[in-house]
Design brief:
globular; 16 strands; seven-stranded parallel sheet; alpha/beta; three-stranded antiparallel sheet; single chain; about 35% helix
Amino acid sequence: MTVLVTGGAGFIGSSIVDGLADAGHRVRVLDVRPTADRHPDGVEIVRADLRDPAATAAAMRGVDAVCHQAAKVGLGLGMADAPDYVGCNDLATAMLLAEMESQGVQRLVLASSMVVYGEGGYRCRAHGSVRPAPRQVADLDAGQFDPPCPRCGAPLTAVSIAEDAATDPRNVYAATKLAQEHLAASWARLTGGRVIALRYHNVYGPRMPRNTPYAGVASIFRSALAAGKAPHVFEDGRQRRDFVHVEDVARANHAAVRALSAEDGPRSGELRAYNVGSGQVHTVGEMAAALAVAYGGPAPVVTGDYRRGDVRHITASSDRIARELGWRAAVAFAAGMAEFAQEEHHDAIGQRG
């Protein structure tokens, strides 16, 4: 099978490319960044922007399936970032789907995200499953980070979320990721295509971007340690997350590519969504502490600061992908964080030398 990987030079995309090539697929990469030093021999490189129609048309020729990873990631710095997010994520996806229709390519794996849910799952002792309202600035300023029950104001218990939960994006990036899913679902219905949307939870691991305000929290903490500084943990550090290793995410994409051709995979015209998480809950504070110990750097500092648009708790139930695609995360949290910390540590030592 020939698979086009958009964003194949990136953090997650490059790991996907390597795994697909190792599995014997013919792989073509479409990315604006240089990629040749990241991939095995035989991987074809098209260096271009998805929004270049001629380049995307050329990259699509002879393709059997598309693994769409290209996106602008991160929470963003404010509404001034919104046009760039919409252009990179939604316009580019629309142009990709139009070219897939033009060339009759009918299998798509879409990189989606946990952010489409907004807040995660919550239960109230009196009212059962509830969806909390967006957190208020006055509460955050007062250090009241956990959302209350929207009906009675009582404390809530955070629970893992499944794919049938309502979507409720709470920042610009999240809105663009959900729009990608809607665009892909529309394309599938119109063309008879098949889509698997993988809703990644907090991905970390080798090749993760560093020293950028758009990087994930694990990378921000690691960069602080490399500079000899304590990681600064927002809120009270008790935000619940599911940290999943990039190698496991790459394997989930390989499983999705296989499923698109399987009899029990998505039907013609269907988008099927899967959570991709480790199934293990850790707090942001626990993650920062694990990195600090593995790196041998200063202990984290809990600041009480917050960012508008952040959600409090979001963890995954990955039961569906285990049941239907046979995928389960394999990299343990402690081992993965130790490896992640030492990758940066080795880089820093080399730079000093």
